[in-house]
Each structure stands twice: as structure tokens, then as C-alpha cells.
Amino acid sequence: MSGEQQTFGCPSGSAEAGHAAQCSGCPGAGECASGGGVDPDAAAISLRMKATGKRILVLSGKGGVGKTTVAALLATGLAARVAAAKKPSSARAGSSSAAQTARPKRKAAPAVGLCDVDLCGPSCGLVMGVGGESVVATEYGWQPVVASLGAGADSDFPGVKVMSAAFLLGGDDKPVVWRGPRKSSLIRRFLKDTFWGRLQYLIFDTPPGTSDEHLTVVKSLVDSAAPEGAVIVTTPQASALNTVKREILFCAAMDVPVLGVVENMAGFVCPCCTDVTAIFDPYVSSHPAATGLSGGAALAAEFGLPFLGGLPLDPSLATLADAGQHPLLTGDAESPLRDALNAVLDALLAVLDGTSEVPAAVPVAQALSDLTRATTATKAMAESGALGSATGGSTLDNNDEIFDIFDENNKLIGQARREDVHKQGLFHRAVNVVLMDNAGRVLLQQRSVGKAINGGCWDVSVGEHLSPGETYRQAAVRGLAEELGLAGGDPGDALVCIEEPRLCAYSYPEVGKIDNEFCALYLWRGFDPAVHPVVPDGIEVCDVAWLPLDHAAGHPDLLAHTGGKHTPRSTTRFHLLTPCVRGLSLAAWAR
């Protein structure tokens, strides 16, 4: 193997752990170097977090659904509820005795915090009306910024404590160009170095997807500091809900309870008459539990989760946010958004207080079964002729997708449609990726039955065609995200090219297609599914399975597992791995 191929990724478990060059900048370097497996920040994080009451993650796999808005609304709404509960009963009833009037009014300390861990798009400060503020370092730690949201000095509203990367950058328009380890380090500082004080609720606003930020928060909040659960945010459309399902699976894999689903943009509030009108075609589920439901309610029913309610799209919210105010603190006589938010808060508090059943984390096997229902439906469509069959009907593949085409020497000569590339046998590029864990097992994926080629067959972990202008490695990283939900970016030295591009030719006369592809093979060594949860795409991928390498490389157990339905390239690819590990234990080589 080349020198690059001999450079292993994370040296965890070796004598170099925590000291090797690749450990530089990793937030876990101290833990590995100690040799004891003890997180050096764990005690400090636990000490801070145990005083923060109930910790709630606001998650969504989809960008643009309004996670930050929902997180800000929940934080402010909970703060208002806490303030109302602390108000003396006589004051709540409107009593105004002379003694009360004479007593100087003192606001309570904020009991709710909002931690913005969307480091590349930190906007909680702007939404909470404290954009442009800075964090003050004190002897007790970083002092969060308190957002009053327009509440006057005579108000009982104590405000919300806010911490955001924007407060540390010197401006809301400063870009964050950081790799994963630096992001993780800052998030851990938010947890252990921020003087949150004693809170009843700490809300975490997260970025889209399931990447470094999410893993850092979840893996840092453990034991007595573990999160109470997650609120999943979606919009009504199918495009959003299908992506949000991955976030539910992330929670399942990481043992984070899902407290419920909130549907944002559930209708539009007319600025003239305040009537609420549906403006999106909602997602409709075929699941029996979701009969008669749509949008976020249908998604919640599919997974057996509480539906906390819907929040309408109200133009006045933007006006209030720009003025640093909040709909719960305004005196408008009629506000559909305020009514909807109060209903969501009631439902969430019922779950948190135990008056509504707190759901356990969705079992991964059950969640994967739910997610692949779409593929089962696709198979039924194919059998009925609605989708097309293996004789050239329409499939899940985009036949109009453009590929770069090459000559016999792998030199670019032009472009063509996917359908023409495969019908004419034009040379194009592809990449395969194999995941191998430290036990020497490799991951197989079962292709969707709706694929034109090898539909329903078992295959390598990832198989992707290159997009125009894309490198082999870029396509490999994209395929990991799109097919297996591994959206954490390039895994670095752990992902190694073990075979340079070579021509692989396959013929499929039953569908009239020829695959002439210059294909490279990458291997992700030492893959840890506990650190990187595999969340298969429910449309492209039917199922996944881990098998020992020798079983995958043509062993009878492969035939038993797949029923003989595996792609030609899968066994050749797994055979190629075998000589790479000859003379070494699989576990040692995988590291």
C-alpha cells in the first residue's frame, strides 16, 4: 500500500492515542492521552449542567424549517410561564394593597437559558433582540447575555439568558470557518465555562442535520446532566418530513427521548383579518396509525410520538423580532400565533411533568422499519406497473441527470444524460465505499427495488456516480451523507482510497443497460456506528447489514443472508479487501 494508505486515522486504542499528530486540535485528545478513558471536562460540565434544570434539544434534519424561531419561542414562553408561577397569588389576582405598592419591585433572575450551538449560522441573538452584544468573562465564567424581549422595568418577565458564537465573533456577519474539532471544543466551553446559574430550563438550538455539533452536545450531556429530550421541528411538506425522519432516528441511535413534534408554518396568518390559511400541500402518510392526519401530526403518529401542535406563519413575528419583542409579551387582543404557542407549551409541559406519557427513545430497529416503509410502497408500485419494472419503465433514478463522459483513457470528452450513458455504454465515473468496523465486519446495503439496475440487491456500503466536475473523494463523502445519513463531512485519514480508478464493465441485458465506469474504491477503517449512527435513506436504501469480511467476500453466509441477490461488484470489491488485511488481524488493520 502507499504511504497514504498506511496512515491510519484515529489512533484510539494505541500507545499514540492523544499524542499523535492527527490528535492535534481534537477535543478528546486529553481523554485519550490520560489513558484512563475519563473525559477531563466531564466533571466541570456535569457541575454546570446539573443546575440547569431540564435540558431540551430543538432538532430538525432539515434546514429552513424555523428551528431557531421555535427554540426562541419555547425559551421565552417557558420563561413567561415560570415568571407567572412565581408571582404571588394576590398579585396574580390583581391585589394592590398599600404594602405591596410601597415594597420596591425586584425582578427574579432569569430561569431559562437558550444555548445556540448552530456555530456556522448563529442567529439566536438576533431573534432574541440582543444581536451585536458581547459576552463578558468573569471569575465565574462567561456571563450570558440576558434578552428582555421588550419587557419594561415594571414587568415581571425576568428575561432569557442567551449564549451564542455570534457574541464571541465581534459581529453577527462574521463567518465561522472551523473544522469539527474546533466546533466541538467551543460547544464544550459553552457547557462548562458559561455561568448559567440556576435554571429551570435550558434550550439548545441546533443546526440542520446530524453532525459534529449534535454529537458533541449529546455525548457531553451524560448521566445526571443528560438531556430531558428533544423537540423535533418540521414544516408540513413531504420534502421536509422525509428528512426530519432521520433526526428521529438519530435520537433513537443516541438514546435521546423525543418529547414531541412541532409543525412550524402550519398555515399563514393574514395580516389584515388574522384568519389562518393553509398554504402548503401537507405530507400525507399511508401508515395505519396516521389515518386522517397530515403534516407533523402524521409524522408523530407514524413513530408513536406526541404531536405538540402547529405554529402558523405570522408576518408580525418578524416585526416583533426586529424590535426585540415577543408575541407572548405583547398586548394584541387577538393573536393566532400566541394561542398556538400557548397550546404547544401546554402540551410540552404535560410531557415534561409526566401528566402526558414521556416516550422512550424510538428503538432503532423499529425506526428503520418505519423509515423503509416507503421502499415497500415502491415495490408494490413496481409490481402493479405504476412505477415501471426491470424492462425499462420509470424508476427512482433520474434519467435526465447529467454525467461527465470520458474516453477509454479516462479523459473527459463531454457530457450525456444518465439514460443515454447506460443505454449506449458510455464511459463515466463512479466510486464505491466500504465501511469496516474494528471487529473486521463490513457494512452491506440493500438497494431500493425501484433502482433500474440491481434493484433489491445487496451491495457495497455506498455506490455513487460522480457529478460533473466532482472528484472521487467528494463523491464518496456525498454518498456517505445521502445514502447512509453520515453527514459529518470528510472523515479525514479514516477514509482511504485502496484502489485507484479502473474500468469496471457490467452488462444488464434484461434492462438494456451497460455500465462502463471508471470506479475507485474507498475504505472507512475503524468505523464506529456508536459514534457515527448509520441512518439509511428510506428511498434509495432498503436495508443495511454488518457481515464479517470473509462472509461478504463470497462466503455461503452472504448467499444465505441475501438469498443470492447481491450485485456483481459487491463480491469483487470485498474480495479486493482480503489481500489488504492478509498477515494482520482484521481489528488491527481496521484501526
From TrEMBL:
Biological process terms in GO annotation: iron-sulfur cluster assembly
Record's GO cellular component terms: cytosol
Positions of the Nudix hydrolase domain: 426-572
One annotated GO molecular function: metal ion binding
Pfam (any one): CbiA
UniProt keyword terms in alphabetical order: ATP-binding, Iron, Iron-sulfur, Metal-binding, Nucleotide-binding
The protein's name: Nudix hydrolase domain-containing protein
